[in-house]
């Protein structure tokens, strides 16, 4: 495994729309492993492929330590309720902001074996699904934050 360099806000890579994964190659599996290592090393709860310079629809999330969620070609298929809270991003160091998101979110995605699955999450996990999937369409939370703060 290898730790990857995290792209920071201002880099155009973060503003691009990512392409779906057609075939899950050994390279994609390596990328998933490297993204998990990179997310953990940076103390994050989520990481999207464009944040490591790869314009593919791939996300890793770990809101509960030890419980890694890998999403390939994810889509939000249901959302309900609302929550307003603080959000940060490994690509926006030193900052956080207040963002309103759905309280409950269901995603459909492929796992690393190419099998389709659905997963529902609430609270932090729902927030992570929204935040990370936005990255795949070139969106950052700073675009929708009500307020931004320094996070020291
Ligand atoms: Zn982010």
Please give a handful of descriptors for the protein shown.
globular, Peptide Deformylase, 152 residues, 8 strands, binds zinc ion, alpha+beta, 2 helices
* Architecture (CATH level 2) name: Alpha-Beta Complex
Counting DSSP E segments of at least 2 residues, the number of strands comes to 8
Spatial order of strands in the largest sheet = 1-2-3-6-7
Poorly predicted tracts of residues: none
The helix-strand sequence is HEEEEEEEHE
Instruction: Estimate nothing, just give the exact number of structural domains.
Output: 1
Indicate the CATH topology. Answer: Peptide Deformylase
Which whole number gives the mean pLDDT?
97
Count of alpha/pi helices: 2
Bound compounds, please? zinc ion
Structural description of this entry:
The chain is of the alpha+beta class. The chain has a single domain, classed as Peptide Deformylase (Alpha-Beta Complex). It is 19% helix and 36% strand. The protein has two helices and eight strands; from the N terminus they run H-E-E-E-E-E-E-E-H-E. It has helices at 26-41, 123-135, and strands spanning 46-48, 58-64, 67-80, 83-87, 95-101, 104-110, 116-122, 147-150. The strands form two sheets. A five-stranded antiparallel beta sheet has the order 1-2-3-6-7. It is globular, with a radius of gyration of 14 Å.
Summarize the structure.
By secondary structure, the protein is α+β, with helices and mostly antiparallel strands. The chain is built from two helices and eight strands. The protein has helices at 26-41, 123-135; strands at 46-48, 58-64, 67-80, 83-87, 95-101, 104-110, 116-122, 147-150.
């Amino acid at each position: 495994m290898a730790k990857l360099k995290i792209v920071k806000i201002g880099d155009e890579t973060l503003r691009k729309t990512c392409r779906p994964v057609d075939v899950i190659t050994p390279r994609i599996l390596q990328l998933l492993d490297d993204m998990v290592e990179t997310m953990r090393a940076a103390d994050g709860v989520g990481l999207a492929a464009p944040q490591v310079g790869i314009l593919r629809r791939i996300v890793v999330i770990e809101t509960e330590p030890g419980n890694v969620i890998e999403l390939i070609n994810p889509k939000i298929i249901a959302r309900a309720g609302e929550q307003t809270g603080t959000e940060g991003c490994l690509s926006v160091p030193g900052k956080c902001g207040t963002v309103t998101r759905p309280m409950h979110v269901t995603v459909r995605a492929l796992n690393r074996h190419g099998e389709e699955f659905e997963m529902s999450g609430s609270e932090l996990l729902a927030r992570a699904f929204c935040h990370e999937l936005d990255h795949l369409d070139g969106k950052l939370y700073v675009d929708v934050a009500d307020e931004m703060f320094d996070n020291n």
